[in-house]
Amino acid sequence: MSQSQQSIQQQPSTASRPTGAGQSQPPSTMGGQQFPVRSNLPDEVRATSIDLLNQTLADLSAVTMQLKHAHWNVKGIEFYQLHELFEDLYEDFEPHIDAVAERASALGGRPIGTAGAVAQQTTIPPLSHDRVDGQSMLREVADRLAVLDANLYQHIETANQQGDLDTADLLNEVSRDVTKAQWFVESHLQVPQSQGGQQRGAPQQGAPAQQR
């Protein structure tokens, strides 16, 4: 890496960005440099949007890699179903990574694209490597999807407030798929109150059948 590239990466960003629901992060330096573009958005708006897009890119990339990890490593009686579920969610998220990165680039920013940069920037907690049973995997993935969902909500609010409607619209698309993924995962953890006992609506044992 050249000295000029190192100085670009170390250049502090003047734009503030909202912190995620995970660990608190300082303002991003990944999108510090802006390339000149013919945009109707003021430079300070573009700087903020580039930062929040890079934060989304880091968090989304981290969760996507974790879904692939879960796909490969899940064990237990529900293996096949969860193996397929995690793969499906991975495939749903992957196109969003490219779209978010391209939006950051279109605004004149530098989208992060290395594993090291993602690990440094993301607010998503790492997965535990010693929990491979289906229920533990589901709980960990659900927790991380919840962090990503909360972060996206804050980023959408910021983009809307500063008038960057295209970025807000893009993040809304990501948010819809994240919310859907959270529903799919959490549904495996939700047990009806009647389960384990008598089913709702079933006649009591020994009770006469109702006459039609």
Automatic annotation (TrEMBL):
Biased amino acid composition, Low complexity: 1-13, 192-212
Family: Belongs to the Dps family.
Residue spans of biased composition, Polar residues class: 14-32
Stored Gene3D superfamilies: 1.20.1260.10
Residue numbers spanned by region Disordered: 1-38, 190-212
Protein's name according to its UniProt entry: DNA starvation/stationary phase protection protein Dps
Family matches, as InterPro entries: DPS_DNA-bd, DPS_DNA-bd_CS, Ferritin-like, Ferritin-like_SF, Ferritin_DPS_dom
Domain Ferritin/DPS: 50-190
Pfam families in the cross-refs: Ferritin (PF00210)
PROSITE patterns on file: DPS_1, DPS_2
GO function terms (MF aspect): ferric iron binding; oxidoreductase activity, acting on metal ions
